[in-house]
Amino acid sequence: MAIGGVAASVAGAERAAEAQDAGRPSATVLPGMEYPRVHADRRVTFRLRAPEARRVQVVAGGADNGLGAGPFEMSRIEDGVWNVTTPPAVPGFHYYWFTVDGTPVVDPATRSYFGWNKECSGVEIPDPAHDFYEAKKVPHGEVRSRLYFAEVTQSWRRAMVYTPPGYDEDRRKRYPVLYLQHGSGESERSWSEQGRANFIMDNLLAEGAIEPMLVVMENGMVARRPGAPPMAATGRPARGNEAFGDVVVKDLVPMVDSTYRTRADREHRALAGLSMGAGQALQIGLGNPAVFAAVGSFSGVAPEGFDLATSYSGALRDPAAARKTWKLLWMGAGTVEPARILAMKKVADTIRTSGIPVTWFDAPGLAHEWQTWRHSLKDFAPRLFRSAR
Amino acid sequence: MAIGGVAASVAGAERAAEAQDAGRPSATVLPGMEYPRVHADRRVTFRLRAPEARRVQVVAGGADNGLGAGPFEMSRIEDGVWNVTTPPAVPGFHYYWFTVDGTPVVDPATRSYFGWNKECSGVEIPDPAHDFYEAKKVPHGEVRSRLYFAEVTQSWRRAMVYTPPGYDEDRRKRYPVLYLQHGSGESERSWSEQGRANFIMDNLLAEGAIEPMLVVMENGMVARRPGAPPMAATGRPARGNEAFGDVVVKDLVPMVDSTYRTRADREHRALAGLSMGAGQALQIGLGNPAVFAAVGSFSGVAPEGFDLATSYSGALRDPAAARKTWKLLWMGAGTVEPARILAMKKVADTIRTSGIPVTWFDAPGLAHEWQTWRHSLKDFAPRLFRSAR
Description:
Oligomer: homodimer
Largest interface: A-B, 45 and 45 residues
Largest sheet of chain A: 8 strands, mixed
Strand order of the largest sheet of chain A: 12-13-15-14-16-17-18-19
Distance between the termini of chain A: 67 Å
Number of strands of chain A: 19
Radius of gyration of chain A: 23 Å
């Protein structure tokens, strides 16, 4: 043991500690499953049984995924099982999947999460510094699945509606509403499943940090009906989310106001979203000042050729008027996001320079990931509906 | 065209019709996905892209799965895509997955459903004779995700709670409660996702066929805490669902009664479940006559050595007393289920012969599958809480 001196024995002790740190199953694993395991230093061990496979990899969902860029080659260990331990990951929720001889395969050991337009596996890396998105021993609201018929699409649609604790108790109390949107390739369930928006709201409420509010989460991927004309405003061909603004204004907001005890005026409605949803929040929110008075852009993409006079339906054309109209204009991003997203800060500066207040939020060391959006919601929600207090 | 006479041209026309019947994507496919496709004659075409694979199969979830026993060998067609069309399937929801060179793989084209203790793919075969489980243009209730802390397990648990249309409107109205359980390897989401219990209840309500009621769906796979003693009643080692009865009686029912506007007495509570959940319904329901007055067994397994005096906690020991205690004792099964499940009919007959009424329900031509349980709920629910009318 003494051979090689102090340095070697320290290294040996580190190796021994590492070997002993078997880690803990990710919070995303299915009952009885042991992998992926997250180690104390945030390395992650993945396993998959695939006895006949010739090559198995872990693929992280996206180039700026907090697991690292990957793909990570797995090695065959005993009994047809493949194994890899990745370098330390960034805290938060990360999408991933395997490829088995080139075919994408979800991990049979974790719950599935809809992202990247498909069912993905997910791993949750705990953050020792933050637990604001964990289920704590505080009063919990409900997440309600609400079916409604949308005239715009002529189809049944589903909204997920967070009601705060106590909603059912006092029949006379009415609530402001935050409409909160997912990113491209996700769904109305993403904010509660991946984002844990309900726990974030429960915890903020328990601290007295926010006004009690409803949170309505819908699916932003709403294509126009076949044969329908392109968006009048742009004339661009369909991208698959063109009709969402119509659904929000003509179907969703009226349904929510007629179904729930809301404060049904613009001062008590906000619209926010992440990534693609951030673009939708700015377009639909600023484009409908009769409906919304507050807008949040979580990791939105900076518009090419941003122009105060014409961008966002010209809502910011007249700074004096815009200052009165918009109660809150909030933008944020992770500090290590891609350039087109970080460029949004310049958009915020341009708006601010015109005299319209913009709140900018930096999520330190985080990329285009759910941890950024959890932090964004935690900063954004307490700023909403403050005049209502 | 006339060559070969009438018979040949009829066969040719059939082949042409078959070729033209490209089918429709299953109701379970993800947005934009085309397969599996269900044909008019209920054959199903599955596809998977796996260019490097040597053997790909469709595996039906269970030997009596309505898709057929399988596995179904897929053939490589153009561009690395594998394809198979199965024989006509039984209507309803069926679990399946692929194996790619022996490794189980979910279909990336459908939503995932938790069954067989894992995420599975699902296909929905329409039934031209029945639409009672479809979303129709009727008032819809909500399915609410409700977190609560269970003292029995010392952990946060999730109940899914169906509230009927109008629940939020009349604050004075109180509701009876049906506790409705899934089968082995499923979860609290199965009855709403696979079973469509909420649409079944919405439709029965719209027809005036049932009393408005809450439906509470929890997760029956509740293991005792590590180190906890075995069930006092049986002394058997843990199977993974031993603590569910304690959770129901000590945590779930009290939480539901204190959170929702229920009629909090035994006459207004029923407990039903399918397969493993049927066994739990009989054990926990009949074992707790102070809590429940109605029990439903959907495709339950006949107990070995059934004895009126001792089985089901001796609840049926005294037929005269049992006739007064139990408002409804309901049992049912598909007519082509396995022998141990069909043997339940003899148990029902034995109970009936003792003078205790039992309602028996046959789901014609159906096996141990969700379509049986949808039909079971449709027959069971209208019989509940009739004295409440």
